[in-house]
Amino acid sequence: MSIPDDFLMDSYRKAVALNLCPQFIKLLEKEIQRRSIHSSKRGIDSPYIENESPSIH
Question: What is the pTM of this model?
């Protein structure tokens, strides 16, 4: 059983806003891409999904 798309997107938006662990954000991104959630449904304009997550230094 998986979480609903809107909950996944809300989790992603909050993770980015709170600057949580980049690996966690990347995990959410991969699931968003796996589900083929389109940008109109995302309701966000974030460089994290369109490009790469910030690298860890």
Answer: 0.66
